[in-house]
Specification:
Layout: H1 2-49, H2 52-69, H3 74-113, H4 119-141, H5 144-180
């Protein structure tokens, strides 16, 4: 009998530790998503406001020394190509993409941090849609960054799903109690 009670206590302590770890993991991942969304929103606004010539001067100033030492520098040449592609008509697309992506994620992250139940499935759906887009972009660019972002989004989806199940169960458990009073 004592052995069963002790085993149950150990099992309950493990459950509490794993729940606490999942809670922390969820909160950290959502906070990182929120910071990323904030940076995207700020970046989208900056892209709309910054003159392409000013951006060109800044980029050339920053990369001048690197390109003078090695004209084939991998990072510098990719930044120059990305800028040229950006200026050739993708500025508005990039700014609208960053603003919409960032704003939607910011709203959902705040709602998740406030434990709004409706935000959990919406976050999962939104991240799944972005994953499909990121995989499409990866197929075109073979960017390691796209794969890393996709893996992070998959982790956030799993953590959001687990937290959603926990929040729903908690609310179902609490609602009969509150209806008695």
């Amino acid at each position: 009998m004592v052995c069963r009670i002790g085993a149950r206590k150990i099992h309950n302590m493990r459950d509490l530790r794993s729940d606490a770890l999942l809670d922390r993991s969820f909160r950290v991942s959502i906070t990182l998503k929120g910071l990323h969304a904030l940076l995207e929103t700020i970046g989208g606004i900056a892209l709309l406001m910054i003159d392409p010539q000013t951006l060109n001067r800044f980029l050339l100033t920053v990369l001048h020394e690197e390109l003078s030492e090695d004209p084939r520098d991998f990072i510098a040449t990719h930044l120059v190509r990305a800028y040229q592609s950006f200026v050739s008509g993708r500025k508005h697309f990039a700014s609208v993409y960053l603003l919409s992506h960032g704003a939607v994620k910011l709203v959902l992250v705040v709602a998740l941090l406030w434990n709004k139940l409706w935000a959990y499935p919406l976050m999962i759906i939104m991240l799944a849609a972005f994953i499909f887009y990121q995989l499409y972009r990866f197929a075109l660019t073979h960017s390691l960054l796209m794969i890393l972002l996709t893996l992070f989004d998959l982790i956030v989806i799993v953590l959001t799903w687990l937290e959603y199940g926990k929040q729903r169960a908690r609310r179902q458990f609490e609602s009969p109690r509150t209806s008695q009073f």
